[in-house]
Amino acid sequence: MTILCHIDSISEGSAKSFEHEGKQLFAVKHHGKIFLYLNQCPHMGVNLNWQEDDFFNYDGSLLQCSMHGALFEIETGICVAGPCKRQALFPIPFQLLGQQVKVTGPTEP
To answer: Does domain 2-103 have CATH number 2.102.10.10?
Structure first.
C-alpha cells in the first residue's frame, strides 16, 4: 500500500493529481468524501486535466475531460455527456488510514 496524501491536502470541492507506479491518478474531495480515479478518459485515453489539478467543469459540479469535453459524475465516474457517454472513469481502490489516503488495489482496468 502506498500513501498518496493526507486528506487535508485536498480542499473541499477540489482535486489533486498524483503519479503512482507510473500511472497518473487523481483524488477529488466532494461533500467530505474522497474519490480516487485513474487519470484517463475512457474515450481517448488522455489525461482529463488540461492544467495541474484542474479537473472540473465551469461550476465544479462535474469532472471534465480537457480533450473533448466529456462530463463525468464525481461520485461514480460515469460519463453523462460527451463521446464516451455511459462509460466510466476507472476507480482506484483505496483506504483512509487515519488521515492518510492509501492505494489498496490495481491502478488500471
So the answer is: yes
